[in-house]
Write a structure and sequence with these properties.
The chain is an alpha+beta fold and 370 residues long. The chain is built from 9 helices and 18 strands.
Length: 370
Amino acid sequence: MINIPFDVMASKIVEESGISREELDKRVNKKLEQLSGLISREGAAHIIANELGINLLEAKGLLKAKDLVPGLKGVTINGKVIRKYEPRSFSNEKRSGRLARFLVGDDSGVVMVVLWNDQVDVHEKIKENDVVRIKDCYVKDNNGRVEIHLNESAGLEINPEGIKIESSPVLRQAQRKKISELAENDADVEILATIVQVFDPKFFEVCPECNKRVKAEEGSNVFVCVEHGEVKPNYGVVLNLFVDDGSDNIRVVLWKNQVLALLGLEEQELSSYKDKPEGFEKFKTDLLGLMAKIVGRVSKSAMFDRLEFVASLVFKDVNPDEEIKRLDESKGNKEKAESIEPSNKARESSDEQIDEELLSLEDLEEEIKD
């Protein structure tokens, strides 16, 4: 299947062969006639490229985000890191391993970058707003979204000398919804709500190599990873909140990066509450009544048959005047911009229920697809 747009193919053929665009169009039309319409323009261009010894899938030179199409190999691109996501481990019938993702942008667009296995180690060194140069990567299609993938032969430089990205595009604004409007599998949605209940953070052991959850052997303090054997574990954390926007309430799940953003803590500070949970009580009190904007996706808990909101971004510095203006402009009704009063339905959930659900943290993780 040819996924490269015809104009992109034509530009590459003209550039590498030296023939004119007019001559190329003539050759394409001739191929179409010869094959009696049984081939597309893209297919005809692909045949002509092969005849001229041109590999359309082999990238040459520095590309922009807008130039990327599925199938390209040997790609080099510069970009600014816009958003960084937590690493994940995966395991299925075919294989297991690690991956990490981050978004980069240039003046033409944004693209997701995916790191595999040993390349994930580089992910820890990358920070948002860093400039990166990615070399010898390949481009894939993931449900209609173009992604850059790095394998063992690819290279990634952080803040390379002489390369600047003065500006990068702003990510499209997440769709704002009321909690009552949320539906299962909604993604990239934003809610504005008041925090009405905060649970204790739950710390869990993970393998320092693959970031997969590990457990102690029965009757000992020895932690064993199925892939890496006995390990000294690192710790992940998940925090559960209930938020209410007046239309309904929903449980929100925050993983480590979002917890750090919400609490304004460094990772070492957060880890200190693992052994001194009583010290976290001050945060539970301070967060109550806080209005926050939360971007994420909606999933359904099979155990409790309810929708839950898995956060990817949290903003606690909400400007009430701006939000009231936004509501007024979007709905044309100033009365709908009144302050949000939380209901009491969130109180129905208990710490015991939360603990039970955390026995299967993987249920909340994003599904990893080949």
